[in-house]
Design a protein that fits this description.
The complex is a heterodimer of chains A (about 260) and B (about 90). Chain A is mainly alpha-helical and about 260 residues long. Helices cover about 65% and strands about 0% of the residues of chain A. Chain A is globular. Chain B is about 20% helix and about 20% strand. The chains are: A mainly alpha (about 260), B alpha+beta (about 90). The interface between A and B is medium-sized, with 11 and 13 residues.
Amino acid sequence: MSAATSNEAFTQFLLRMGDNTLILGHRVSEWCGHSPVLEEDIALANTALDLIGQTQMWLGLAGEIEGKGQTADNLAFLRDVWDFRNLLLVEMPNGDFGQTLMRQFLFDAWHSIQLGRLMSSSDERVAAIAEKTSKEVAYHLERSADTVVGLGDGTEESHARMQDALDYLWPYVGEMFQSDAVDAEMVAKGIAPDPASLREEYDALVGRILATATLTIPDTAFGHKGGRTGAMHTEHLGHLLTQMQWLQRAYPGSEW
Amino acid sequence: MNNEWPLWEIFIRGQHGLSHRHVGSLHAPDAEMAIKNARDVYTRRNEGVSIWAVEANNITASSPSDKGPLYEPSESKVYRHPTFFDIPDEVGAM
């Protein structure tokens, strides 16, 4: 395989990592000033900031590997919907607090397993980012899992809301484990694991927490897809970008 | 009002060798979440190496109206301060 093709696949992989953290970070930041209690507001804002910080590393490296002079900021603010490579799950609307925390948990569980694998990546830059970010993500997972259990195994109303959130979001979980040519190349080069190989560990972890939360995983094999390949995003991403990219769209090229 | 989470008093140890110091209070449904909330509210800027959370209603406090009997008797007893001795330099910080 030529060096150009190889860099293309590597760039795609890095965009997938960085776009996940960027879009979820923005979604979580939408809670700032609106959370049900002050302590959760601060905790969610911390999580959002962690994710945006991780984005700078992933997209920074993506721009470097791509070699066309793109900075992390360019990639975040100057691309449109069809260029984004995040999972559909992370662009889903916040809904109520329970839905936000369910989405967070379903993502954190995958994220922590993925970063664990990436710590032994053959690319030392990827391994270093994974090493640094995995500590933040371990905390995100601990927090979101605790909240899912607390609300799932809570009052009748909180349980019903968490089950609704799980029913709504579960069809977006399968996309995490789909593989394509980009993944095959990452596996061949030892840069990243085959997404499908994370499924068993994910199901064990998520199954355990959701059982403790007295929630029932929907009995469906149906899964939405198209986010990580860029084939088709949901209608929600475009709306999110109008907010996130508002400044660059209104005042192109402005800096401070 | 019993929908409110209980209040917790938070103590943080800034570095090894120092005592935990009271830094403030917060609300949380249970002790574990109190620690997590304390981590997010009070250690964002690398302030601590250890957190204690104590439910506020478990703290017994002295009454402000008792301050006369409690504290005034010690005001006139300067001999209780160990300030009448020369401390050798080798002792270091006391």
